[in-house]
Amino acid sequence: MKLMDYHIHNRRCGHAVGEIEDYVKVAIEKNLKEIGISDHFPLGAILDDPQFKEIIKRASMEVKEFPYYIKDIKSLKEKYKNKIKVLISTEINFATPGRALTRQKKILEPFMDDYDYLLGAIHDIKWHESPVIILDPREGSEALKKYGIEKINLEYINKLIKLVETNFFDVIAHFDNNRILFRPDKPNYSPNIWQKLLDLLDKIKNKGMAIEINTSGTLKGIGSQFPDDKIVKEIIRRDIPLMLGSDAHRPENIGYMFEEFIEKAKKWGLSHLCAYEKREQRLVKI
Ligand SMILES: [Zn+2]
Ligand SMILES: [Zn+2]
Description:
Shape: globular
Bound molecules: zinc ion
Number of strands: 11
Distance between the termini: 7 Å
Number of domains: 1
Number of helices: 10
């Protein structure tokens, strides 16, 4: 079976290694059918305060780089068209309030005809009385102590609901990224939070969005892919399309643990994976 990897970074973001072409070459070696380039969308679009300059540099490419990023993928798409399908995407950090999305859309706009799919992702949470809490284990233990598990999970899910309600993204990347804060343990969802999560899955199903199986979870020490098995089973039960992404920040991590995941999920009833082209979703039998 030839697979697709839809979540790939490159050295432009400041914390990955290798040119996009290096990733394309490894994907060909690994016999992938499609590779979706989805580097971090410029954080500078929503965070332009000079005090964050260094953080921004290590988080994503600069705003002025974005047109060149798209241009590079387009030329690789052409160069390797007989060997692999190269898709154009970007991982957009969803930030509330809505004004942030408006600013992001302005930069995305000139290339709207080029994207094959857009990934929406959450990397931090914040509510009115809290500071920005980055979903990172170092910051996490402090935040967990201060606000408690229930509040953190609730605010994460509330932000996911807002992301889905924008109707802007095709796929949700690393769906339960809140788990990073609990590493190496799993978050214990209260009945209230779990119900909210199930209601959100129903909403995602109705909107026709897809959810990413992000296999980097295992590399990040949380014990499995994002989302966790328990959520994956609920996704499969609802027939919500699943898309595979390694979140590779090194070329050798392309397709990481894909076969293992498929083997496991087939037992739970997974029969198709989802693919995209020009923002049209289709299902591919596995
Ligand atoms: Zn990254
Ligand atoms: Zn991400």
